[in-house]
Amino acid sequence: MKMIFNTFAFLMLVSTTIVNANSFTVPQYEKMVLDNGLTVYLLEQHEVPLIDMSVVVKAGAAAEPQRPGVGYLTAQSLMLGTHKLSKSDIEEKLDFIGAQVSVSMNQDAAQMNASFAAKDQAVVMALVRDMLVQPSFDTNEFNKLKTRHQSILSQQKESPQSVITAYFSQLFYQQHPYGLPASGDEVSVAKVELEDVQRFYQTHYVANNSAVVISGDFNSAAMKVRIQALFASWKNKEISPPVFADVSVAKQANVLLVNKADANETTIMIGGQGIPKNAKDAVQLQVINTILGGRFTSWLNDELRVNSGLTYGAGSVFKSQKHAGVFYITTFTKTQTTIETIDLALKTYKKLWSAGIDEATLASAKSYVRGQLPPRYETSGDLVNFLTDMFVYDIDAGFINGFEQAMDELTLKRANELVVNYLPSENLQFVLIGQAEALREQVKKYGEVKEVEITQPGFAL
Fold it and tell me: Rounded distance, CA 355 to CA 357, Å?
């Protein structure tokens, strides 16, 4: 299962709500809350005999930032067995009927997704319930999970593109919980014990902190009875949502130079403050980002790849969480052309202010964003993820239903106002992963340089 938590991917999910090319509405669904506080969304559609189900819990990594990795290991531990079945029993049962169940998490939530044939709903839904409500937390399986995860963490820095976002988040967010890696790092994960996982589970995995979302081929009346029977006994408790201080935006430009001595290229990320997930202008900002770096024919890709040949790709993205977000430009190039590439990327970025957006460019980007949205919703899985996002990020139907209006109201004047109001233009933050010896002196012109070895555990400065 893939969680849909970046702005562009969320807009792709919006495609699931289209009725026709010119009408943009959320498909009809039912929402109810059980006596124990569990929120339930039901969306019937009978095109194919399949059902997609998600249980989302507001138990992301930011819920306990003092122990990075404990939330991730808790979510993954749900797959390790129940009071009734072992991990291998679960896998065999799912394989036999061709069903899929998986888990993942980010800073704000953990999610278990299941996809199965409608005829198998009784079996799979009961299994999902047991995995969520009665996990076994088997010691041997947990130790194997932890060892595997540590191995992955120790190897990921071989690929700078796999870890540069973690470095950038740490640089931008500093001590804010969003700055910590959702899956932990080598040091933090080594300290997580099974008791920590069990405590995290008991604290956060409760009915009134969760939602069940089901889309597909079922009868809503019968499904309500089934959900009630399965989940009514899930315990609830008083929940205190984490309270975060506002993100402290840097008052100066900083350069984090991550030394990878054997690198023959530099991986680059440049950016600053972005937007939270439910920002009212998120749809229109996607058009602005499309112009700058959100498609193959964007300004950044044209200049850095097509016209100059400095890289194989360049782009930009808004990466949003519930309470905050970042915006960044990303690319890579040979060590020898690092400065040339950064300078050209900055020059291209500054065109948003110096030259501004013209009518033809805006019209093309609006058509592109609209063209990414098919005239009908695609899969029930997409709809499930859309509804879970509504639950986690406090996004209401108006955010989606107003898509066409937002496109229509995005005038040239409005587009250039969005650039001024939302795109970071001063005190940019830079992360460069490459040969520090070759870059150290040259990159001082971009800001105050801080240097770390990529072999150093974690992503701290």
Answer: 7
The predicted pLDDT at position 434 comes to 97
Per-residue pLDDT, averaged over 356-360, amounts to 96
Distance separating alpha carbons of residues 323 and 50, to the nearest angstrom? 34
Look at the domain 7-231 and name its fold. Cytochrome Bc1 Complex; Chain A, domain 1 (3.30.830)
3-state secondary structure of 302: helix
Res 25 pLDDT > 90: no
Say if residues 212 and 54 touch (Cβ distance below 8 Å): yes
Percent of the chain with pLDDT over 70: 93
With contact defined as beta carbons under 8 Å apart, do 270 and 433 qualify?
no
* pLDDT recorded at residue 397: 74
Q: How many residues does the chain have?
A: 461
CATH (residue range 254-453): 3.30.830.10
The set of residues, in sequence order, having a beta carbon less than 8 Å from that of 233 and lying 6+ positions away, is 36, 133
Give the phi and the psi of residue 415 in degrees, each rounded to 5. -60, -45
Q: What is the mean pLDDT of the chain?
A: 90
Phi-psi map region of 422: left, alpha, beta (phi>0 left; psi -120 to 50 alpha): alpha
* CATH code 3.30.830.10 region(s) in the chain: 7-231, 254-453
185 with 68: CB under 8 angstroms? yes
Indicate the angle between helix axes 359-371 and 412-422, nearest 10 degrees: 80
Residues 83, 88, 93, 98, Cα dihedral to 10°: 140
User: Is the pLDDT at 11 greater than 70, yes or no?
Assistant: no
